[in-house]
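Run: sequence + glutamine -> complex structure.
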Amino acid sequence: MRIDYQSILQQVAIFGQSSINKGKVADYIPELAKVELNHFGIAVDTLQGENFSVGDVNTKFSIQSISKVFSLTLAVSVLGEELWKRVGVEPSGNPFNSLVQLEFEKGIPRNPFINAGALVIADVIVSNFNDPKKEVLNFIRTLAGDTSIDFNLAVVASESEHGFNNRALVNFMKGFGNIHNDVETVLDLYFHVCSVEMTCKQLAKAFLLFANHGVLPVNSQQILTSGQAKRLNAIMLTCGFYDEAGEFAYRVGLPGKSGVGGGIAAFLPGELSVVTWSPGLNKFGNSVAGIHVLEMFTTLTNRSIF
Ligand code: GLN
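>> structure
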């Protein structure tokens, strides 16, 4: 049965609008606190090359932790299985910036999507590339097919100035020998990559890679093997929403990744990517309107991985 995605997006956007004011913008990074609550956008790209969208889909926002998927993809593509000696694949059940498990697990983060895990991935990238910031940025530009994508240096400075928790994480892991480079170099890469700004439309295009099992749909370039893509997709399902990953799987039924800029990028393997943006967050750091709308999206299309 052919699905009328545009009409479904129009219907779900009404739920998005109704939830816009229910969350709070992230204010622990002061530059992000300047963003108005009053935004909502949703974009869908299909593997057949169709695009559908409603709302603020051309406004750039800080992708924040959605970037962790891109960094992980790059790290897996260069390091392969070796990577999993330094970071686990279990949901943490703890907030994204939590320190507590690191002591018991000897500096090996639970998964690559909590901050500790993403800092290890940043360390891997620093070890493997001469110009790591440029490498990750170019990688994101390639996936999205858009060279205008860039860092937001005001967000980098703001996060670095207030990045006490991330500094603690990276130093603590260095004490266990799981950070191989200078901690400030690793943090600088991490803050830059989190600051990347993209629109819903650009993210939807970039996430088609995961819907397409690791192959870039535009030119059939294989970025990940199908085995690697399976693993990445599984980690997005189990860890992409921190201590709300179970709830997201239960309500939405798609793998994906959120960021404290209010974006959520999700996908249905073999079919489509779907990206929402609304900056109001719940207590887990996930977009309130985004989760509500994605739940309605999978309900109305009657499509999920389950
Ligand atoms: N840059 C943010 C941080 O390190 C990313 C967090 C997020 O989006 N969940 O705290």
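>> summary
The radius of gyration is 18 Å. The chain has two domains: 5-59+198-301, 65-195.
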